[in-house]
Target: MMPL family transporter
Amino acid sequence: MSSSDTTSVSGVPPRRGRLWRLGGWCARHPVVVVVGWLVVLVGVQVADRAVGGTYSDDFSLPGTQAQDGADVLAAHEPAVGGTSAQVVLHDGQPLTDFQAQVDQAVTSLQHLPHVLSAQNPLPPQGQAPQPGGPLSADGQTAYVTVRFDGVLATFGDDYLDQVDAAVAPLRQAGVQVEYGGPLGELARPEPSDRVSELIGFGVAVVVLLIGFGSVIAAGLPLVSALLAVVVGLGLLGLLAALTTFATVAPTLATMIGLGVGIDYALFLLTRHRQNLMDGRDPQTAAGHAVATSGRAVLISGTTVVIALAGLSVSGISFMAKLGLAAGVTVVTAVCGALTLLPALMGLIGRRMDRFTVRTPVAEGAGADVTSTDDVAIHDTTISDATTDDTTTDDVTPVSTAATGGMWHRYARRVERRPWWYLVAGLVTVLVLAVPLPSIQLGHIGDGADPTSFTDRRAFDLMSAAFGPGSNGPLTVVVDQSAVAAADRPALASAVQQALTGVPDAAGTAPLQTSADGDVLFTTVTPAQAPQDQETTDLVGHLSDTVLPDAVAGTPATTYVTGTTAAQVDFLDLVASRLLPIIAVVVALAFLIILLVFRAPLIALKAAVLNLVSIAASYGVLVAVFQWGWGGPALGVSGKVPIESYVPMMMFAIVFGLSMDYEVFLLSRVHERWRLTGDSRGAVAHALETTARVISCAALIMVSVFAAFIVSDNVVIKMMGLGLAVSVLIDATVVRLLMVPAAMTLLGGAAWWTPRWMDRLLPDLDAEGLKNN
Model:
């Protein structure tokens, strides 16, 4: 152990805080920690398989028109309530030739558990088919509407087998049978992230090997992140037994957990290897790494979790639970980085670079000692000052190795022309954000899925035979329980007349009356597909104008319900609450950066630049998916709207993740500034020592996110591309152009703190300079 490991230059032993003691203890007791993690991993996985819950996209939206209408219909006419799905039939000859098989299949469906009703699409023998009914004009396509009393995903693993058995006579006769709606989703292949994980891991291995030059050093972050994510997914499964999570929740949790897990481990391991090269023993090096970079990991992870928790502001349980799902793996990733990784580093000891593919290098060219073990701290409070702090008269000299590395030279160029670099970065992100104003939020329909999915084939059959709007019928409900019996016929006539010739509607079925006579209901078929803007407009026109006008002057209440109407209501909720969520997340992130660095200008800069980078990533999504610039190349059929909850989810995730690099970079700038008092030199030094590792970390995270583009789920493709682009922009344009330029322009004023604020803010010591 070198003398600098035990005393500072003043001769006083450094005070070692909780993080140092945690890292050192894990490094000294590696077997205990590793075995403990393995026990936890096996325990949560076994518990998940025994009592873990399932994932489903069926969520209620209390207080919305669609949910209220569904409740009214279920209460007065249960047979037409519940969850509906279609069994689509097609053959090259009239389906009436298969009357016996159709009748047998419908009867079998009616007798299945959880089935409220199943409508036979064929008319009784001897009768002509009803125009506009479930049998196409050529008689070659029909659909059976099956209504269930609950969420199909909760009916058991063998329920789809029972449905298959019910329609088996049709398939045996050569009739094509496809499932639409929730039944089609149930029949989709079991989603697997294995391919995406393998691609992400493969790229990560290559990047880490190039970055570290050591096989062992490249493997440690991957092992740590993978174990942490598997534990997190097990915990998520246990939470799913208590509440309902969306089907995308485990994929999203995997995506975020792997990305941040590898990032956190990479930053810690980089500092640890530098400590080893500086002569520290492995246990002390691990403790020092956890006390310094580990503190930034803890702050960064907290920021990500808080940003995800900001989704709860939406008041939409679907969104809040997606944030919770991602937050679970972020927490386990932080725990893995702070405990499991130090244990693995202690276990490896000085054998870190035993197997190399190139000569290992230090943390950055010209890296010099930046610990309070070696130098006294420049900790002069800058109060009400705006001058560039470039003098170092009150600073104990630090050892300065010869500088001149690529990143150091680059930082000096930025220092000479900061406005050029700042404007160049701003122009780049603004160009990428050009498509953003034309963003169209909506729901991605089954027509965008691959043709290997039965719901996509059902969608195509329905569109060809009955029009695209047949895939998203709207149910109109009129509660006339408060209307006098004598006035009900006139009310029914007025409603039927109002629904005739509505723009963007392909047709309306005759009004029906519930068994108790209190409710009128009918089906309106849109002229366009469920995801089209015209269908969204139709829902609003019916609910806001057509139906209220039809029942004006009566105590009747009207509703537009059904799956498509519920999706429109969800879209309206998300759109109305997106700005409050943005405001809350930005405010929380601003507060965290302010608490960590005690510098309001730094916090403001971080918030503004992160907003700019997120706007650019939104623009890319609009261009690729909504405008169709590359969507087909990604396996997306046609142009699709931006899934309603993707921008909100992306904002919380990206804003949290972008704070990762912000905290890591600013921690090194602040650390250096406190050691030397040279604000501009601190920016150059921080870039020089962190640019390589930040670039590696960003490339890995981009690869992990981009690997999910191969998913068959269009929403996952959208999330994967959006997150990958966001990280890429943040780690290049923002972190390499705009941040150093802005920091250079701010100079010493960047760290200015008003006296009143200085008295109020706690000193969190983000770099661990006082407690390591």
Notes: The longest helix spans residues 563-597.
